[in-house]
Predict the 3D structure of the following.
Amino acid sequence: MNWEFVPAQEHFEAARAKWDNLNRLQGDHILLDSEFTSALLRHFGSNAVRLGILQNSTQPAMVLVVPTRWGFWETFQPSQAPMGLAVFGYRDEHGDGLLELLRSLPGYPLQLAVLQQDPDFSAFPMNQGLSHLEFIEYIQTGSLKLDGGFEEYWDSRSEDLKRNNARRRRKLAEQSKRLEFAAHTDRDSVAACVREYGRLESQGWKGQQGTAVTEDNSQGRFYREVMEYFCPRGEGVIFELLLEGIPIASEFWIGRNGMYVNLKTAYDESHKQLSPGFLMKESLIRWAYSEKNWRRLEFYGRTMDWHQKWIDRTRTLYHVNCYRSRWVLQARKTANRLRSARTGVSPRQPE
């Protein structure tokens, strides 16, 4: 095996075709598509990010990694990336490929953290019996399989959800207020939709914290670029719920092969009494059932109580820590036990 590491921002564009070929071997996940990955690098990357390329005809692989401190590396993982950015052309059942990757990193690496792995797509299946690997639960995430028709699905939802949504819609109708649902799939609509999304998010707690999407910050430029690429290809949709012609909720979705992923969600907190997020979800799922190529909805965020009202399945995303040798793992576990005894908190995230 022969791993090569080069500055990612300079070399990823030339490697995109190979990256996409490996992604197709791994399930062709849209969150690992080279366009999505390239946009992450352009808007959130740095000179520290390295593109690793394994020159091996039978077991090819690529990965984006960054050093976190001396001897410690992890996959490049901006908050806008729901999945760890590694594509292997084979299933690394026993972690031998990860160990070879770790030992090939520059310097004298002790640990590599491969973050946010989805068991449905990861090349690194959970195997707690391996001495050089540590699997750490990250979050429970939810999904919805679109079986049957919407009416059957809606009948299976809780009575409270159905009754409350019907009451909200009835109240708006009694007040002669117009509620509309829109699905934007054309490239020319994206800029205005991102602007409206930023307005919604800026009015809420993210605006107060300074983390909201705006049309002229890096997040806004990233989402505009991503949606302008995927929408005209039939792989992206921006949904809006409008009250009297003004958006009060917005969601960005991308997907392929029947599986669509919720990238971003925002709603107008001044209309909280209407629960615009719930009204949006009902309309969105009804719309998705009408689209023959939509077969599964993925949320890729920590499952909250409100998710449970809509989904039919949860699964655990996880991190994989790979250690140079068994003693490094044992030393880490000892340090964690001492830290836990001192603070009363058990560390769960890779360093």
